[in-house]
Automatic annotation (TrEMBL):
Pfam families: Histidinol_dh
Binding site for Zn(2+): 259, 262, 361, 420
NCBIfam families reported in the protein's UniProt record: hisD (TIGR00069)
Database matches in PANTHER family: HISTIDINE BIOSYNTHESIS TRIFUNCTIONAL PROTEIN, HISTIDINOL DEHYDROGENASE HDH
Cofactor binding, note field: Binds 1 zinc ion per subunit.
Organism of this sequence: Eubacterium oxidoreducens
Obligatory cofactor(s): Zn(2+)
Entry similarity comment: Belongs to the histidinol dehydrogenase family.
Protein name: Histidinol dehydrogenase
Catalytic activity: L-histidinol + 2 NAD(+) + H2O = L-histidine + 2 NADH + 3 H(+)
Amino acid sequence: MRILKLTKDTTNDILNSLLKRSPNNYGSYESSVNEIVQNVKENGDKAILEYTEKFDGVAMKANDLLVTQSEIEEAYKKVDSKLIDVIRKAMVNIKSYHEKQRQYSWFDSQDNGIILGQKVTPLGVVGVYVPGGKAVYPSSVLMNVLPAKVAGVDKIVMTTPPGKDGKVNPSTLVAAHEAGVDEIYKTGGAQAIAALAFGTATIPKTDKIVGPGNIFVALAKKAVFGYVSIDSIAGPSEILVLADETANARFVAADLLSQAEHDELASAILITTSERLANEVSAEVEKFANELSRKEIINKSLDNYGYILVAQTLEQAIDTANEIASEHLEIVMDNPFEIMTKIKNAGAIFLGPYSSEPLGDYFAGPNHVLPTNGTAKFFSPLSVDDFIKKSSIISYSKEALEPIYKDIVQFAECEQLTAHANSIKVRFEDNE
């Protein structure tokens, strides 16, 4: 990995480089995606089946789209029972964590007849997109579905592309069934997002779409936002490690590569105050990269978006971490909890040498659907909050409204909204 002195210029160069990976910069694909979305909106199942044959190489009929109970049972036979046990253990942790995020309706009543409050209601139908193709992510199934279940969503619909045999990956099906998905449909890409947004004769319309995907999926989610809600438009994965001279170079190198292997656009950055650690980590990265199965992807990722930055001071390192606002931030320092209090922008923060990023991906409980491309400055991880909506409650008695009604009338008349003013005045005509 390249080693650079951390300066204002290097920080700006890196930020500009990382931002180029954002889905917002892939406008050349938007027309193709919009065409797919419009076709599905107008032609429903017909368009879905045509795209499934074109992109996935599978010819199906509309009644083949829904995964059957027998297909789920077949999947259980193909998945290692030990993996099923791990999925169930992970579910316990994920549920437990997200149950602490629950929000409840509240009401505040006063003696003069005023009742104010907030009504919390789960979303009705949620669509979960799960990628297929090159990689299989049963962990993402759990992370997207379980918060919705905890929130109390009525119906969860999942779409995922079929393999060449017309079937869904067995571990994906098992994870979906364990998590409580109600319906699973065999379609992927932008066409699946369009189906979830507008509905077809076979696939139900949803209120919100969540889940990761490729650039076509990301742009499709962007295109349908407003017709439905979405979680985010996610970019490539990223990790930033803050480390000092106490860090284990081998651990740090392994953690950087855990994200670099995702894809060629993934970024892996170490910021350290120790030149010795920088050199040791670089050497360990080279050793690991030659041994790991996805070394070609890793090497391209590191060539494009891998950096080791040597900071002059701890404050400079922290400031740069906040500026980059990484999806995953590991703090491997002598006093990680103290450093954590100074971090303002990060999707998930991992503290200490044994809190490696994959712990959060699979097992610890916090959600691994996180803001990317610097959006941790204003976005949060996927949570129960993403699957509820809130309604304000307002109730005034005549006795409560009477002392203030003229104030409201004055406000409305200031804005030249006479019908607003009249709506209040009419209730106290006898007073005039």
